[in-house]
Amino acid sequence: MIHKLFLGLTVIAVVIQAYPEGSSSYVEDDAIMHPRRIYPKNSRIAQEEFQSDYWIKQAQATLKAKKEKELNKNVAKNVIMFLGDGLSIGTIKAARVWSGQQRGEDGEATQLAMEEFPYAGLSKTYCLDAQTADSACSATAYLAGVKTNDGAIGVNGQSVNCATNLDESNHVYSIAKWSQDVGKKTGIVTTTRVTHASPAGVYAHVPNRDWESNTGNADCADIAHQLLYGETGKNINVILGGGRERFLPNTTIDVEGSSGLRVDGRDLIEEWLNTKAGSKATYIWNRAELLSVDIDNDYLLGLFEAEHMQYYLDVVDDPLEPTLAEMTEVAIKMLEKSENGYFLFVEGGRIDMAHHGNLAKKSLAETVQFSEAIEVAKRLTSEEDTLIVVTSDHSHVFSQGGYPPRGNDILGIGGRGKDSILYTSLSYANGPGYRQEVDGARHDFSAYDLSDKELRFPALVQLSSETHSGEDVGIFARGPWAHLLSGVLEQNVIPHVMAYASCVGDGATACKDSSSNILSSKLFLMLCLSIVYLRRYV
Ligand SMILES: *[C@@H]1O[C@H](CO)[C@@H](O)[C@H](O)[C@H]1NC(C)=O
Ligand SMILES: [Zn+2]
Q1: Residues 200 and 302 both lie in one domain
Q2: pLDDT per residue over 308-331, tens digit each?
Q3: Where on this chain does Zn(2+) bind (predicted)?
Q4: Which of 41, 233, 346, 518 is the most buried (most CB within 10 A)?
Q5: Which residue has its alpha carbon closest to ligand 1 atom 10?
């Protein structure tokens, strides 16, 4: 502890020596580095929390639950992967506080659905050619188990254009394909276009994520086309999300008044129904249809928006827009009829997009919706036979800081700057929330309604779109072999572990291991018997 403190001070001293200019006003005083205010017994804090007993009991209860937890080495019949796009650790913290505060509860101690999972790890998200991941290369890592170039989906680093993409040896297949190969059902649920980078990682093979409806090259199939006709896409049982425009010709106007984007004149929604003619298949486009859909369908395609689905805060209780939790529930109910189990991919896709706009409140609300969907999966499945993995593709340059008191409004003020101007607790390193200084003075956000969902939180560097961050993201797991998803892992290890647990794919699996264990124990038995025989009779 003292060593660490000493090391910290040394680092600070070195930094000051390295940058002498402007450091003259630097005061090495702990009271300034860590300003403290003494709060009166805050009514927002439960009185028992002031007693040591409360914390000791809470810690002992957690310890007891952890040491009594037995390793689950069952075969995972089902795997559900939840992907929070851009779900940084900081976003999880801020969203849990916001979620609790919304209900008038103790926000800091609130738990989102995945926080109750028994195992967690960190995922290193860099891609083949990028220090900071995009959603395409990262999807290839966490679904197909191979790191690739920024912007590439379902291909290795050798596919860089249409010509190299025609070489199928450059394609890599996702755990959805591995699962289909052993007779499992599969599904994708997302709040983005179903052709967007993360869900496309389940079924598409493109060097360029922008080929959603038009590759600019007739030889290479676009992502929407691959969802209908690709080796993996054609077998997906449940497809729910947005992106209708990518399936319709640019000459048509869809049911909600948006025009299609396809330039090949094809109506892929109609074609999808035609390809499923021999099975029970349904196409739906609104929430009411989803909530009354017959789960005995073999195939379900739901496209609820022309573009991405709306931000939750913009469509609360909308009759046309289902929630992520509602879509997840229908998907699980359809897939769980599979005797061989299923692989389901669920994406909270707009946590990321709200962050890109520095729209902190919307990002937190999307995260809470994501948590609600995980809650549905927990309720509908058993830890005994279903592995649930919750992770993210990459982080965001989003932070929560200052020294606000316990119970402080998470969207509120974090403290006062040296310039005497208040600053918000939430902020970004870059993005459109940047505000020009006025007469050399930092912009004062305290004049705004900080609870406004459209408020762009402050950013240091002006950019039209806030950037991802290269830091690690969390992995949360429960169910068979969930304990293997602990420690600091390369992102592409995740599908290998899910495949191990569910006995799919070409790599090691729990089933192969247990049969070789049975085999080796049989060999051992035979060896013992022959020794006994030899000693007696020879
Ligand atoms: C549709 O796309 C084609 C091919 O790019 C183009 O020639 C045509 O003008 C477009 N039509 C509309 C209505 O945008
Ligand atoms: Zn993004």
Answers
A1: yes
A2: 999 999 999 999 999 999 999 999
A3: 85, 352, 356, 393-394, 468
A4: 346
A5: 250
Same structural domain for residues 168 and 111? yes
| Residue 269 CA: distances (Å) to CA of 240, 246, 247, 272, 510 | 13, 10, 6, 5, 39
Strands in 459-462's sheet, in edge-to-edge order, are 398-400, 426-431, 459-462
- Please tell me whether residues 81 and 144 are part of one structural domain: yes
* Structural domains of the chain, count: 3
Answer yes or no: is pLDDT of 12 > 70.
no
Residue with CA closest to ligand 1 atom 5: 263
Do 417 and 488 sit in the same domain of this protein?
no
Catalytic residue check, 135: yes
Expressed as residue numbers, the domain containing 326 is 74-397+467-507
Greatest extent of the chain over all pairs of C-alpha atoms, in Å: 103
d(CA 483, CA 485) in angstroms, rounded, equals 5
Q: Give me the residue label for tokens 């939430």.
A: 426
What are the residue ranges of helices labelled H in 71-189?
89-102, 135-139, 162-165, 175-181
pTM (two decimals)? 0.91
* All residues at 6 or more sequence positions from 365 whose CB lies less than 8 Å from its CB, including other chains: 98, 311, 312, 313, 453
Answer whether 316 contacts ligand 1 (Cβ < 6 A).
no
Among 322, 133, 143, 333, residue whose Cα is nearest residue 242: 322
Let me know whether 230 and 166 are in one domain.
yes
What residues pair up with 82 in beta bridges, in sequence order? 346, 390
If you measure from the C-alpha of residue 356 to the centroid of ligand 2, how many angstroms do you get, rounded to a whole number?
Answer: 7
Distance separating alpha carbons of residues 4 and 36, to the nearest angstrom = 21
State pLDDT tens for residues 336-356. 999 999 999 999 999 999 999
Considering the domain architecture, whether residues 145 and 176 belong to the same structural domain is answered as yes
| Domain presence at residue 310 | yes
